Amino acid sequence: MSLSPVELRHTLHKNPELSFQEFETTRLLIENIKSLDTTGRLKIYTPYKTGLLVEYHVNDREYILFRADIDALPIKEENEIEFKSINQFMHACGHDVHTSILYSFISEVLNRNIDQNILFLFQPAEESGGGAMEFFKTGFFDGFNISKAFALHVTDEYKEGSVASTAGVLFASALEVDIDFLGLSSHVAFPKGGRNAFNALRQFLDEIDKLPKNENESFIFGVGKITSGEVRNITPGYARLEGTIRALSSRKVLDFFDNLKKNLADIKNTTGVDFKLQKGSHYPEVIVDKNLFEKISEHLSEKYTFIDCGHKMTGEDFGFISHKFPSFMFWLGTSNGEHFGLHNPKFLPPDSVIEKGKDILTDILNLMVSKKI
Q1: Annotated catalytic residue within 17, 127, 160, 317
Q2: Please, which residues have CB within 8 angstroms of residue 80's CB and are 6 or more apart in sequence?
Q3: Which of 17, 22, 69, 160 is catalytic?
Q4: Fold of 173-282
Q5: How many angstroms separate the CA atoms of 60 and 337, rounded?
Q6: Active site residue 207
Q7: Domain spanning 5-167+289-369 has what CATH number?
């Protein structure tokens, strides 16, 4: 017997797995989706090491794709709940909810015998590693004629059950950046004998802060992690910065990355500290198709609170998919007064949002099936 959507959410939340490590999550989904499909109408594919694609095929027409992400974050949960994470990781971005919504949606499609070919993608590694791109690199999607793609993301920025999106860029392009500063350690009493990597890192950040800024342009170079040093009386010969570049286009992100090389070269010339600049995952901006936005926003506004929220500087792996197919992505509000924000150890959407998310996806699907888009 299959788990209910809420039971699935609790199981996933209690046992979170990091990007590309979602083996038990994948196994659990396969087991329960098979239990949902009592008449054998679904095909389950695992072309990548984690994650899965579920096919619902009923006619010779095109497919539409619905996607949920399944990975968690290296964050220790601070919620005291019955289904609290039992390891050092956490679904602090709501992927357990996304997955449970899509799972519930599959059940709805089966129960209603929908006359529409659908692919349900449970995607690995949204948080890190570019799982969408890796999944598509398998070439498995080449065998399907996909006309449109859809996804949602929960947030406590908006009231529970509300919907927020915009035409054009919804989420920013995001590039992970790692910079290693390679100096030479020395005793603090003899600083001239070394090349202080941490000071070079500080100088780099100072120089970045001096760069001219366009107040009318949405752009971020954010630093989330710095590591350096071994003991208190030795100047560090090594320092590392982990950050992200975000803008409303991939081109602007990559241009800024190239400019970092010049800044780092100048600092090397003045400090003698070498550097190693590396790109991590690069997520293209999420593009919401204008026609889909106009039709879907009009349709959903009849039943839900719909907000044209403009662009956000959030990075999202669905950006890769949105550049391949006409797409619609939206925020699903979860707040009942609380506002912790994504990636917070207390972020905890209520179970009730699962049913609301499933209903919204169903309403979008009804619009597709009625051929009004």
Answers
A1: 127
A2: none
A3: 69
A4: Alpha-Beta Plaits (3.30.70)
A5: 47
A6: no
A7: 3.40.630.10
